[in-house]
Structures are given as C-alpha cells and as structure tokens.
Specification:
This protein is α/β, with parallel strands linked by helices and 367 residues long. It folds into 3 domains: 147 residues, Rossmann fold, CATH 3.40.50.300; 70 residues, Helicase, Ruva Protein, domain 3, CATH 1.10.8.60; 96 residues, Arc Repressor Mutant, subunit A. The protein is built from 16 helices and 9 strands. Magnesium ion (MG) binds next to helix 4.
Length: 367
C-alpha cells in the first residue's frame, strides 16, 4: 500500500469490514506475528496450542490436526502460519473454494512432504467428494489415486507421510460432524478485548515505525469491533491523517480527526451501520420491520445488510432479531441520541460494553 495521502480509493466501501482484499493482504503480511509468543490475546487458545505443539516436537511426530474457528480477521491464518513456523516446517496453503474436484485435493495431498502443514482455509466450503477424500487422508494417511477411465478405472491406494491439517472456518456450525471429529484440537477464536487490541495496535505501530501515543491506540482500539484486522486498518488510516494533516505523530487528536474523516464512529459503526440504525429508529419507529424493507430503505441489498451490518449491530446489543422483524433496542436510541417514542419496544441495553448483552445473544443464538 502506498504511503502518504489519503486515497479515496482506499476508503473502500467498508473501512470497518472484517474481510481483506488483495492489497490489504500484502499490508497485513508485514504485521503478522511470526511466533506464538508474539500473538496477542486469545490466551486459552494460545496455551492449548502451545502444549499441542511442544508435545509433538518432544515426540518428534506431526501434531494432531488443528481446527481454528471464529469470525474473520481474528487471526486464523496468522495462527496457521505460526504453527508451521513453530514446528520448523513449511506451510502449504489452499482453501475450500479453491478445491473444485476431489482430484485437486488428491494432487495436493500426494505432494505433501513429511511433517508439512496443510492449511485449508474456509474448510466448510469444501465440496463433498473432496471432503470424503480428506477424511481418509487425515485418519489413515492414505489417498486413493484413480488411474484409467470408465470401466477400466481402478483406485490405487497411496500412503502419505505424516502431516498436519490446519483447517480454518468462520462457520464451524456448517462443518459436518465426521470432518469436525477428525481434528484432534479445535481452537475457537473470540473477539478481542479493547486492551488486547490496544496491544495489537502498539505492536503494529512499532513495526510500521510510527510514533503513537497510548491514548490514540486506546481510541482506535475502541472503534475496531474486537477485530485485529480492523484495528490494523484504522491504524493505517490514522497514520495517513497524521502524515498529511498533522505532524506525523499519532496522538488522540489525529486518531479522532482521522476516524471522523472516515466516518467510523466512537463504537466502530460506519455509515452503513448508522444508516440501518437510523432508518430502523426514525422511519420505522424502532421496528419491528422486515429485513427486506429495511434494506430497501437504505438502498442496499438485503444480503449486504444481513451479513455486513447486522451481525455487529446485534452483537453490540443495538438491534435485536425477533420473529416479527428487526427491532431497535434502548441502546440504539441512546446511541443515536434520540428519544424513543412512547410505547416503542425497547430491549434492555447490554449488561457490559463487550457486546455480550443477554438479550442480543439469546435472540442471536435462536436465529
Ligand atoms: N493475536 C494477534 N496479534 C497480533 N496481530 C493479529 C492477531 N490476530 C490477527 N492479527 C492481525 O490481523 C490481521 C488479520 O489476521 P488473519 O490471521 O488474517 O485473520 P483471519 O485469518 O482469522 O481472517 C493480520 O494482519 C494479523 O497480523
Ligand atoms: Mg484468513
């Protein structure tokens, strides 16, 4: 990514989206922790994984297959790379959508060398035949290679050297049980606490060689939706601002001003989130209103509203999903600074700031 001026192209549709495009992946590569000790937060997963890896190193065998699950941008790919690095082996990377046919997977598997780590991103999107081939490979270290065609075709079993599959998924619920069972260790990544994100930001700032104040890191962390990827992205935008309009130092003023330019509000909502929330409150008196109607009002596809804006609004306890439609909670009215009209349905605000409000969580789980 080019240093310097705030490039409107760079604004992207979603500064606070958790996904990453090609350009961003390059920027991210420089910031990825390379060792487990440098991986911030996720203490439980880190501890467990550290044991798995150390034990396997001690026994001089490939560790059990590892499944990493959790929302985008929380560090699954980073952990996969760390696993290979800690084992002192190489990482082979593929993904569910990249494997069209079982044959593609057979080719990858049969080229693996002893002890290598095979990273399968978005593993829940593997096609069924490939999935079945993977069961056998993971359990018996064997792959059946089909030779010949039609009636004369036969399967020759090929023994594979020991290797480790690291699977990543944003939708562990979609993973068929037999596949899930073949992972000896599953790590669930959860959203980061603000102080952890602050550490991610300070670390990244160090790597980028920028001068940042603690208050600025704190401010950016609070707007990063619990997600390191977003934290790093906002950091880069604040750096741009400080360079072009400030004195190069990332202080609180720079952080606030930059995030205002990019329309990321104090709790990390962007324009689309606020448009949805405002429509829900102002146009529909807080709901309930159907998703399609709501999406039409803000001029977006239902799909976009449902997958992009809604999850965070629900997680933060601003919006609740009910069988009759979407409703604004008391916290939503409060956030927009409007008085709810009398008689509106207003759910209680979340108990803590962390978005684990009982109301939203329960409704979310039922959905
Ligand atoms: N625990 C962490 N500590 C420091 N940086 C992290 C951490 N988790 C993620 N990151 C950073 O966030 C970005 C996205 O992480 P990534 O592993 O690609 O997420 P995922 O694969 O889960 O979508 C990377 O640039 C990475 O450096
Ligand atoms: Mg990833």
């Amino acid at each position: 990514m080019a240093d310097g001026a705030i490039d409107p192209q760079d604004l992207g549709e979603r500064l606070v989206g958790a996904g990453a495009d090609e350009v961003e992946r390059a920027a991210e590569a420089a910031l990825r922790p390379k060792k487990l000790d440098d991986f911030v937060g996720q203490r439980v997963v880190r501890d467990q994984l550290s044991l798995v890896l150390q034990a396997s190193i001690g026994r001089d065998t490939a560790p059990d297959h590892v499944l990493l699950s959790g929302p985008p941008g929380l560090g699954k790919t980073t952990l996969a790379m760390i696993i290979a690095a800690e084992l002192g082996t190489s990482l082979r990377v593929t993904s569910g959508p990249a494997i069209q046919h079982a044959g593609d997977l057979a080719a990858v598997l049969s080229s693996l060398e002893e002890g290598e780590v095979l990273f399968i991103d978005e593993i829940h999107r593997l096609a069924r035949p490939a999935e079945e081939l993977l069961y056998v490979a993971m359990e018996d270290f064997r792959v059946d290679v089909v030779v010949g065609k039609g009636a004369g075709a036969s399967a020759i079993p090929l023994t594979l050297p020991p290797f480790t599959v690291v699977g990543a998924t944003t939708r562990s619920g979609l993973l068929p049980a037999p596949l899930r069972d073949r992972f000896g260790f599953t790590g669930h990544l959860d959203f980061y606490e603000a102080d952890e994100l602050e550490r991610v930001i300070l670390r990244s700032a160090g790597l980028l060689g920028v001068d940042i104040r603690h208050e600025a890191a704190h401010e950016i962390a609070g707007r990063s939706r619990g997600t390191p990827r977003i934290a790093n992205r906002l950091l880069r935008r604040v750096r741009d601002w400080a360079q072009v309009r400030g004195d190069g130092v990332l202080d609180l003023r720079a952080a606030r001003a930059a995030l205002e330019v990019y329309e990321v509000d104090p709790i990390g909502l962007d324009r689309l989130d606020r448009a949805v929330l405002t429509a829900l409150c102002r146009r529909f008196g807080g709901g309930p209103v159907g998703l399609t109607t709501l999406a039409m009002t803000v001029g977006e596809e239902s799909d976009t509203v449902e997958t992009v804006a809604e999850p965070y609004l629900v997680r933060e306890g601003l919006v609740a999903r009910t069988p009759r439609g979407r409703v604004a909670t008391a916290a939503a009215w409060e956030h927009l600074g409007i008085e709810p009209p009398a008689g509106t349905w207003a759910a209680p605000a979340p108990t803590t700031g962390g978005g684990t409000g009982a109301t939203s969580r329960t409704l979310f789980d039922e959905a």
